[in-house]
């Protein structure tokens, strides 16, 4: 017979395993989309751009097909990039998080305060990926739920821990209520942090905005 505690521990283990598997799968899909599909589309586009038929009508159709392939290539490229945080490899954690925040604040047309110097130092790859995914989900939540007039994203090191804080002055919510089954973001953030020995804390209340803290250990 299993107790409620056993069930909870089992659910947590499964949720963690799911996150690891999802991340591995995303990487695989991203490579396949980018390398296989991207390469095939690029060569079809090349053929279509070169080939010239002897009738005007055929030329027009080929030009249109070439344009559609170009659009499809751009979509595949974007999809491959959104599946894996390619920015993280290319730009590093600090610039990637700055980009995520600037894009969101640009879309909302609100000011964004950032102090992310602490993310400039090299971090273990899983910690960097975890913090990137936390920032991504927290900012997505702000865009979806908060309707804020300002956002702040900061990171500081204290003792042997790094704290990423993402704050908005929007609607806030009841942080004590368990999110329903269709809401996976907050639970996913908790599990991701637990995987690297970190912790998520949230300060929020209806009408009072939300501050989310992601704390990660910097040693062992
Ligand atoms: N910054 C925020 N401001 C206001 N409400 C928030 C904020 N972040 C989360 N919430 C509330 O907490 C709930 C749970 O968030 P969670 O990220 O788990 O799920 P979701 O965003 O609704 O769906 P999912 O992340 O699975 O796509 C949200 O539905 C929303 O009501
Ligand atoms: Mg969410």
UniProtKB/TrEMBL annotation:
Keyword entries, A-Z: ATP-binding, Kinase, Nucleotide-binding, Phosphoprotein, Transferase, Two-component regulatory system
Pfam families (alphabetical): HATPase_c, HisKA_3
Domain of life: Bacteria
Every Histidine kinase domain range: 28-220
EC number: 2.7.13.3
Catalyzed reactions: ATP + protein L-histidine = ADP + protein N-phospho-L-histidine
Example GO molecular function: kinase activity
Catalytic EC class: transferase
Protein name: histidine kinase
Organism lineage: Bacteria, Pseudomonadati, Pseudomonadota, Alphaproteobacteria, Hyphomicrobiales
């Amino acid at each position: 017979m299993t107790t409620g505690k056993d069930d909870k521990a089992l659910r947590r283990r499964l949720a963690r395993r799911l996150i690891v598997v999802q991340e591995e799968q995303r990487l695989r899909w991203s490579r396949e989309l980018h390398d296989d599909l991207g390469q095939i589309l690029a060569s079809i586009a090349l053929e279509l751009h070169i080939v010239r038929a002897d009738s005007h009508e055929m030329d027009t159709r080929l030009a249109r097909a070439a344009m559609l392939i170009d659009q499809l290539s751009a979509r595949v490229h974007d999809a491959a990039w959104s599946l894996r945080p390619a920015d993280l490899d290319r730009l590093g954690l600090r610039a990637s998080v700055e980009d995520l925040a600037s894009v969101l604040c640009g879309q909302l047309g609100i000011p964004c305060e950032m102090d992310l110097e602490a993310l400039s130092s090299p971090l273990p790859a899983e910690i960097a990926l975890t913090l990137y995914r936390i920032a991504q989900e927290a900012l997505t939540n702000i865009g979806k739920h908060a309707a804020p007039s300002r956002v702040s994203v900061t990171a500081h090191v204290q003792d042997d821990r790094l704290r990423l804080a993402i704050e908005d002055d929007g609607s806030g919510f009841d942080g004590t209520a368990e999110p329903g089954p269709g809401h996976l973001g907050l639970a996913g953030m908790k599990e991701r942090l637990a995987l690297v020995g970190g912790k998520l804390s949230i300060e929020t209340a209806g009408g009072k905005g939300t501050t989310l803290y992601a704390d990660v250990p910097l040693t062992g």
